[in-house]
Design brief:
Rossmann fold, six-stranded parallel β-sheet, binds iron/sulfur cluster, 16 strands, 3 domains, binds FE4-S3 cluster, alpha/beta, Substrate Binding Domain Of Dnak, Chain:A, Domain 2, 20 helices, single chain, 540 residues
Length: 540
């Protein structure tokens, strides 16, 4: 196996025997083969579009299948065998319907399940010998994986855009061709543009379904009733769970990326939606053990499952772990059936308390815009000198304490804008406020990163600036998995420069590709805390 798609790639180069994430060689080569046959499906779908016979089911299928391959989403070999089989079947049906033939291996390979491991090993990322082309192809594929996750979330809530699916198809198909470095770079940039569209669509889907997030205090302590812990990013799953557990005597707690759900008006009406439990994804083994009740993983991030809570863990959607109970998809127009989780919860003791207090969330774009006059005044008077965007992912690496230290070292005139689980490095610190505006504004999940771009674009308009880089905003982004890659590409598309990216630069950036990003966008690695804080406050 060889995998270097996340920030925790072994030794900063790639995992070759087993993933730090827990991905085994079996799963890694299945991921590689699934992506390979999806490229074949994309080639056929592209031909169908060219002939004026597009198949509308291909885009959503690709989005779901790619979602399953993002880091920490799915570790279940049986699910991947089924996905590979379904991809080949879909590709073959579309070929047959068009009477299309091709001698490209991605389009013709038809091996049995027993051949998957060998084929996956043959078609992995190292099969491209040129390190720059490999780097650009993988950057594009990882961007599309992130886009796929956001697109699937929007589709679950009923919003889809054909141009997003068309780009995914075009991008996957393009990675099978011998394109020049310039052509590949252009596709990577286009990926960022379509990423903005996908993020805006998801924002629309979330806010249409559940209202605009509002400033909300979320409790960190626990009650005396049994609980269900819901993790991941899927708000529709949360909605179904809240509805079905009404009057069950069970409380619902959020974990990790589900925390910002408390800020949606639609969820505030549930009295049994009581608080947030624990921290970012990577501490789940001890936190899930202490929770005592069932845990529902709606999306990434799952870490290797421990015996202490294995029989209380459930996956759903594109997530999976071998041997862990999986809740089936909702029937058309219906709801998922969470009754087994609710029944189990009733038999469990209440959660063991980990901490007490409250944290504030709900600063998505509408809430920030509601405070726009105050914010603009504070900038004009100099009470706010700088906004620092510290969004993205959290992870295990101890170097990530950098983000806690930066949050603490920033001067009083700096406001932090965050989204994603990166926030857990500083969201429990008392950072105070500036004339009533909290110094930490949490816009939500990584899925809500659109808010960060929206706020920047609105401020640019209010201040009458021509260039987004003239705003008093610095970017100090933490990344881990592929959704952070599409957010990064989206920011680059919007013209944002001087982004600090950490805790390490992606292993999949070859020296030449990294050089292009540095020369064109002044992307830089994180450095010394005090030096970075001083530089950011000086707009560098
Ligand atoms: Fe390694 Fe990350 Fe790939 Fe897992 S996802 S195998 S940790 S590079
Ligand atoms: Fe986190 Fe996995 Fe990226 Fe949604 S939950 S931001 S890492």
């Amino acid at each position: 196996m060889f995998c270097f798609q996340c920030e925790e790639a072994t030794k900063g180069t790639g995992c070759t025997t087993k993933g730090i994430c827990g991905k085994t060689e079996t799963i890694a080569v299945q991921h590689d083969l699934l992506v390979y046959v999806l490229k074949g499906l994309a080639l056929v779908a592209e031909e169908a579009q060219r002939r004026g016979q597009p198949d509308a089911s291909v885009g959503p299928f690709i989005a779901q299948a790619l979602f399953a391959t993002i880091t920490n989403a799915n570790f279940d070999a049986a699910r991947f065998n089924a996905l590979i089989q379904a991809t080949i079947a879909k590709r073959n049906a579309l070929k047959a319907a068009m009477g299309f033939s091709s001698d490209q291996d991605e389009v013709t390979w038809n091996g049995p399940v027993s051949a998957y491991a060998a084929k996956g090993a043959e078609v992995g990322v190292l099969s491209q010998p040129d390190e720059d082309l490999r780097s650009l192809r993988e950057l594009l594929v990882y961007g599309v994986k992130g886009m796929a996750a956001y697109t699937d979330h929007a589709a679950i809530l009923g919003l889809e855009k054909p141009e997003i699916y068309a780009f995914m198809i075009k991008a996957l198909a393009a990675t099978t061709r011998e394109l020049s470095l310039e052509e590949m770079t252009a596709l990577v940039m286009e990926c960022g543009a379509v990423g903005v569209t996908a993020m805006a669509l998801l924002d629309e889907a979330n806010t249409t379904a559940y209202g605009h997030p509002e400033i909300t205090q979320v409790k960190l302590g626990v009650g005396t009733r049994p609980g269900i812990l819901i993790s991941g990013h899927d708000l529709k799953d949360l909605q179904d769970l809240l509805e079905q557990s009404l009057d069950s005597g069970v409380d619902i707690y959020t974990h990790s990326e589900m925390l910002p759900a408390h800020a949606y008006p639609a969820f505030k009406k549930y009295a049994h939606f009581v608080g947030n439990y624990g921290n970012a994804w990577w501490q789940q083994d001890t936190e899930f053990a202490a929770f005592n009740g069932p845990i529902l993983m709606t999306t990434n991030c799952i870490t290797p499952v421990k015996a202490a809570y294995r029989d209380r863990l459930y996956t759903t959607g594109m997530t999976g772990w071998p041997g862990v109970q999986h809740i089936a998809d909702r029937p058309e127009g219906g709801a998922k059936d969470f009754s087994a989780i609710i029944e189990q919860a009733k038999t469990c003791p209440p959660p063991t308390e980990l901490e007490q207090g409250e944290i504030t969330t709900g600063f998505a774009h509408a809430q920030v815009m509601a405070l726009a006059d105050q914010v603009v005044d504070a900038v004009k008077t100099g009470a706010i000198k700088r906004f620092v965007v510290m969004g993205g992912c959290d992870g295990r690496h101890k170097e990530r304490s950098y983000y806690t230290d930066v949050a603490q070292a920033l001067p009083q005139e700096a406001v932090i804008l965050t989204a994603g689980c990166a926030k857990y490095r500083f969201n429990k610190l008392d950072l105070g406020d500036i004339g009533g505006i909290p110094r930490l504004l949490d816009a939500g999940q990584c899925n809500d990163s659109y808010s960060l771009a929206f706020i920047a674009l609105k401020l640019k308009e209010v201040f009458g600036l021509d260039d987004i880089n003239e705003l008093p905003i610095s970017y100090d982004i933490a990344w881990y998995e592929q959704k952070a890659i599409i957010v990064l590409l989206a920011l680059l598309h919007l013209g944002v420069k001087h982004i600090r990216l950490g805790p390490t630069l992606p292993a999949f950036l070859s020296p030449n590709v990294a050089k292009v990003l540095i020369e064109n966008f002044d992307i830089k690695p994180i450095g010394n805390v005090q030096e970075d804080v001083t530089a950011m406050m000086a707009a560098a």
